Structure formats: structure tokens, C-alpha cells
């Protein structure tokens, strides 16, 4: 992004982000309904969390080019990716993905309902402060899943956002100066 964005008033940036989100939603459609089906017995993968976020070796950072999951499983990689997305004013997808991962660890039924509502209000509902760019089909499935919230309520939306980050955000990150510095 150009350096001049920081000089724009906050309201202009928010409005531009809203327009970007709405246009993306209109342009995006599911590749097929089949890729949205999540088998009932499939357990979600939990990212491994190293004890300390150490700077990766160039070889390890090189693997992130081909695997968003490897990037997300590495605390340093996750922090670098998040920093990059914030610099582009496009961190909402990653924040949603992280919120979903945290949500899946919830055990109390009351907390499940409370967290589900919070995630919906922050990321899913129309005009949400950090509305993620999902198609109407995915949004409808997610809203239906929230009638009786469960740990899998956001699985379809999270899968779509993961695919979007893999196709769009990851390639931009890999081309960024931040990532290129990690390879040195």
C-alpha cells in the first residue's frame, strides 16, 4: 500500500474497507457446494504452539511459501503475517481465523454461546466492525449453525477464510519485504 494512506482520516479508511468487503463478497462465490462440506467425524487440526516465538531459520520460513498451515502453526510466522496484514489494513480474516481456533477450545456451554455471539457480532453480521469477506451461501450456513451454537458452528466460514488467505493473502505476504528479510 502507499504511504499516503496513513494521512487519510480514519473515517475514509473505514469506508474504503467497507466498500472493499462488499465488493469482495459480491465477486466471491463458492467454487462448489462440495468444498463446503465438512465430514462429521473430522477433527479440526490444532496449530502447534512452540513455547517461544523464535525467529525461524531461512529454510523454515521458506516452507511458508507453500503452506499457510505451517505459517499459522509457527508463532513467529503468525505474528509476522499478522503484522503484514495490519500494514495493508486487511487483518480481519486472520483475526477471524484466530478467534475460531480459540472458540474451538471452549468447553463450557454458556461460554460457547457467549463466544459464538461475540464472533458473529464482530466478524459475520452485515456491517460488523471487522466483517470478513464470505459469500452469502457460507454466511447463511454459519447463521443457521448459530441457532444452536456448537464448536463446529464456524467451521464452514473458517474453511472459506482459510482458503481465501491461502489464495490471496499468503502470496502477497511471500512477495513482501518483511518475508524476504526472513529468508536472509
Automatic annotation (TrEMBL):
GO terms for biological process: negative regulation of signal transduction. It holds the Pfam family RGS. Its main location: cytoplasm. SMART domains: RGS (SM00315). InterPro entries: RGS, RGS_RGS5, RGS_sf, RGS_subdom1/3, RGS_subdomain_2. Residues 67-183 form the RGS domain. GO terms for cellular component: cytoplasm; membrane. The keyword Repeat does not apply. Gene3D superfamilies: 1.10.196.10, Regulator of G-protein Signalling 4, domain 2 (1.10.167.10). Keywords: Cytoplasm, Membrane, Signal transduction inhibitor. It is found in: Cytoplasm; Membrane. Inhibits signal transduction by increasing the GTPase activity of G protein alpha subunits thereby driving them into their inactive GDP-bound form. Binds to G(i)-alpha and G(o)-alpha, but not to G(s)-alpha. This is Regulator of G-protein signaling 5. It comes from Desmodus rotundus.
Amino acid at each position: 500500500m502507499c504511504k499516503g494512506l496513513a494521512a487519510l482520516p480514519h473515517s475514509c479508511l473505514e469506508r474504503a474497507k467497507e466498500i472493499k468487503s462488499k465488493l469482495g463478497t459480491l465477486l466471491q462465490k463458492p467454487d462448489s457446494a462440495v468444498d463446503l462440506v465438512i465430514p462429521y467425524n473430522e477433527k479440526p487440526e490444532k496449530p502447534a504452539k512452540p513455547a517461544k516465538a523464535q525467529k525461524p531459520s531461512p529454510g523454515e520460513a521458506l516452507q511458508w511459501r507453500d503452506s499457510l498451515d505451517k505459517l499459522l502453526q509457527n508463532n513467529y510466522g503468525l505474528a509476522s503475517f499478522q503484522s503484514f496484514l495490519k500494514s495493508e489494513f486487511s487483518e480481519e480474516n486472520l483475526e477471524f481465523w484466530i478467534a475460531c481456533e480459540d472458540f474451538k477450545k471452549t468447553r463450557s456451554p454458556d461460554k460457547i454461546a457467549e463466544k459464538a455471539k461475540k464472533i458473529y457480532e464482530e466478524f459475520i453480521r452485515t456491517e460488523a466492525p471487522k466483517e470478513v469477506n464470505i459469500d452469502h451461501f457460507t454466511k447463511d450456513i454459519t447463521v443457521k449453525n448459530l441457532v444452536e451454537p456448537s464448536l463446529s458452528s464456524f467451521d464452514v466460514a473458517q474453511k472459506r477464510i482459510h482458503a481465501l488467505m491461502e489464495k490471496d493473502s499468503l502470496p502477497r505476504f511471500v512477495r513482501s519485504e518483511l518475508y524476504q528479510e526472513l529468508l536472509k
